[in-house]
Automatic annotation (TrEMBL):
Matching CDD domains: AdoMet_MTases (cd02440)
Name the record gives this protein: Class I SAM-dependent methyltransferase
Keyword terms: Methyltransferase, Transferase
Pfam families, per the entry: Methyltransf_25
Superkingdom classification of source: Bacteria
Gene Ontology biological process: methylation
Species annotation: Inhella proteolytica
Methyltransferase domain ranges (all copies): 4-81
Length: 167
């Protein structure tokens, strides 16, 4: 399986993905931080905000993004998820400016924004918008369904069968 660790910093998540046998592409603009990403990860030093998208035509079984937001990239990130693949994305949301950094609204998701980025392209299995460990975040786990694959029906979400009442 191929994984993309986008805006990976020193590769904390890349390391874990490699330990689980995934082929990792780690992307960040900080060349010095990328020196910490372990081999055999494929390391790309790229400025995602002012340079060209470094992964044209590539798709991954897992796209992982944490603590990073550059709105113009949201469609490209979603399009990088291969059929049957996953997007796991977590970053700060509006309200975080009252709790700590980041405070710049350019780096804070609006309510429902991460969910909307997935809509129509990925099947969202989990979404959260709230305070977690003292930070205001949004996170999503979504899957790119294969053609003719139906979204899963979870037994806990099914309505119980009607019970006949005793006379």
């Amino acid at each position: 399986m191929r994984a993309l660790d986008l805006a990976c910093g020193g590769g904390r998540h890349s390391r874990l993905l490699l330990e689980h046998g995934l082929h990792v592409t780690a992307v960040d603009r900080d060349a010095e931080a990328l020196l910490l990403v372990p081999e055999p990860a494929r390391v790309l030093c790229a400025d995602l905000e002012s340079g060209p998208w470094p992964l044209d035509g590539e798709q991954f079984d897992l796209v992982l993004v944490t603590n990073y937001l550059w709105r113009p990239l949201l469609p490209r990130i979603v399009d990088s998820v291969a059929e049957g693949g996953w997007l796991v994305y977590e970053t700060f949301a509006v309200g975080q400016e009252l709790l700590g950094r980041p405070r710049n609204p350019d780096f804070l998701l609006q309510p429902g924004e991460l969910l909307a980025a997935c809509q129509g392209k990925l099947h969202v299995l989990a979404y959260e918008d709230g305070i977690v460990n003292g930070a205001r975040i949004q996170r999503v786990a979504a899957r790119h369904l294969r053609p003719h694959e139906s979204p899963p029906v979870w037994p806990l979400l099914e309505s119980p069968a009607p019970q006949e009442s005793a006379p």
